Amino acid sequence: MDQTALRQEIAELERRLALARGQVPRRRDPSRAGLSFMQSQLWFLEQLAPGRPTYHITVARRVRGPLDVPALREALSVVVTRHEALRTTFGVTDDGIPFQVIRAAGAAGGEGLVVEQAGVDFRAQLREAAARPFDFANEPLFRVRLLRLAPEDHVLWLTMHHMCADGWSVGLLLRELAEVYAGVLRGALPELPELAVQPGDLADWQIMRQREGALEEDLAYWEQRLRGAVPVDLPADRPRPSLPSYRGDGLAYLMPLEVLEGARDVARRGGTTLFAVVVAALKAVLARWTGLDDIVIGTADSGRFRPELEPMVGCLINMMALRTDLSGDPSFAELASRVSAGLAEAMNHRGVPLDMIVERLNLPRDPSRNPLFQIAIDIQQAAAFEWELPGCVIEPVEGESTTSRFDMAINTYETPAGLAFRVEFAADLFDRSRVERLLGHLERVLRAVAADAGVRVSGLP
Predict the structure, then answer these.
(1) How do residues 278-331 score in pLDDT, each as one tens digit?
(2) Which run of H or of E encompasses 412?
(3) Secondary structure of residue 87 in the 3-state scheme
(4) Dist CA 139 CA 90 (whole Å)
(5) Could you tell me if residue 198 is left (phi over 0), alpha (psi between -120 and 50 degrees) or otherwise beta?
(6) How far apart are CA 425 and CA 235, in angstroms?
């Protein structure tokens, strides 16, 4: 048996072993793969409105100090070689079916590290670069620019399409880029562990499971759970347009450390999580604002359901609908318990993409809004996005939000200073003052329940 045939036989045995253990197996064709569930949704949206930056992810860091640009370029090359998602383009079969094309390491194409002199308004320069459409067929959906403000003052700007990355991936990229850069400076590259699987493997595994009917039980759960749910419509400053422009705005809001510690204490005493407490508080505010006692909002599951998926850059997230019954005027402690139980159930049935659930529910399509929820919330550790380079001072560069995928997307971070919020919201609907008022009400509720988690929802200030 020749070496190629032997390697293929070994790979097939490893595939079968992985499937027997319930793991994601390596795909048979290393050069291509199907689209994951989330990628299929994003592909559909791209065909509806080509070139929009709605699903671009941007990250900017100001680097003050002696930055070694050749070392940074080498580190970037190592990271791109390691992660297939950063060198993936997309093709379409004769039948119109999209697929991933994974370019060989070292032949990924694209721009690499683009270094340019900063203009008078470097933020406008970055915004323009971030909004530039990606050519799905001919370039990887990942760009890196380095703007030179002064000899020892730069801005590093990463732009990715959601097709190849998610929020978890951003933290991974920053950490690995910093680790490899430091190794290049030392003259000894770090030994990063080999990735067990890549995004294309996960995509082909999802397609296989769908064909085998493995999603049916979870689909039946979501159909029963979400049947009859009414989307939450917040009071708005302007009428909802018939077609969303996805024009967005954003703001940051910090609740002091005592609010974070109080919320943690409520979670500890109630046997829940900080996220469950924040979601319960948000749902109490939404119930007061809308008069509804059946509240559905969205949250993102990381999709990292096995340890081997955790170190992988890719688009693994899946949006889940969290429905909570607030009827009967429960105490806040009871409401947090209901939210916690709903979160646990959702995680047990998290493998189904949202568009399949919407199709199963046979919901009427309304192009002006998302079918199940318009408000989404997530919680993350701010430390995951910290970045350090030897001899340099790193500062985040806050960009202006120019898009919004939902009416309101609330990102929450635990920080040493307190509970931080970054909110993207639909500029077609809301003024900043209304969003600030909503966050102010949320803070007031969190302060109140820290003092007395037994207060009923109707009694919250």
Answers:
(1) 999 999 999 999 999 999 999 999 999 899 999 999 999 999 999 999 999 999
(2) strand 408-415
(3) helix
(4) 9
(5) beta
(6) 13
